[in-house]
TrEMBL record:
<keyword id="KW-1003">Cell membrane</keyword>
<protein>
    <recommendedName>
        <fullName>Protein-export membrane protein SecG</fullName>
    </recommendedName>
</protein>
<dbReference type="GO" id="GO:0015450">
    <property type="term" value="F:protein-transporting ATPase activity"/>
</dbReference>
<keyword id="KW-0811">Translocation</keyword>
<feature type="transmembrane region" description="Helical">
    <location>
        <begin position="6"/>
        <end position="22"/>
    </location>
</feature>
<keyword id="KW-0472">Membrane</keyword>
<comment type="function">
    <text>Involved in protein export. Participates in an early event of protein translocation.</text>
</comment>
<keyword id="KW-0653">Protein transport</keyword>
<keyword id="KW-0813">Transport</keyword>
<feature type="transmembrane region" description="Helical">
    <location>
        <begin position="55"/>
        <end position="77"/>
    </location>
</feature>
<dbReference type="GO" id="GO:0009306">
    <property type="term" value="P:protein secretion"/>
</dbReference>
<dbReference type="Pfam" id="PF03840">
    <property type="entry name" value="SecG"/>
</dbReference>
<comment type="similarity">
    <text>Belongs to the SecG family.</text>
</comment>
<keyword id="KW-1133">Transmembrane helix</keyword>
<dbReference type="InterPro" id="IPR004692">
    <property type="entry name" value="SecG"/>
</dbReference>
<dbReference type="GO" id="GO:0005886">
    <property type="term" value="C:plasma membrane"/>
</dbReference>
<keyword id="KW-0812">Transmembrane</keyword>
């Protein structure tokens, strides 16, 4: 059980990082340094961006659930 939660935790963390990096830049941060700022001002919120938001939120919930589950197992195991 612990090993399964640890594997899911690592996979969720990697996917969450990838999904966050795939988002378009919204401000004048590092994304505008590479030309992302101009493009984000011209385009609105697309279906792809909304789905990417949903996938990111699902990965955050899975990641947090694994952390809570691992902590509960550790607390009640000993």
């Amino acid at each position: 059980m612990v090993l399964t939660l640890q594997i899911i935790l690592v996979i969720a963390a990697i996917l969450m990082s990838v999904f966050v990096l795939l988002h378009k830049g919204k401000g004048g941060g590092l994304s505008s340094l590479f030309g992302g700022g101009v493009q984000s001002n011209l385009s609105g919120s697309t279906v792809v961006e909304k789905n990417l938001d949903r996938y990111t939120i699902v990965m955050v919930i899975v990641w947090l659930g694994c952390i809570v589950g691992l902590n509960l197992i550790q607390a009640f195991a000993g």
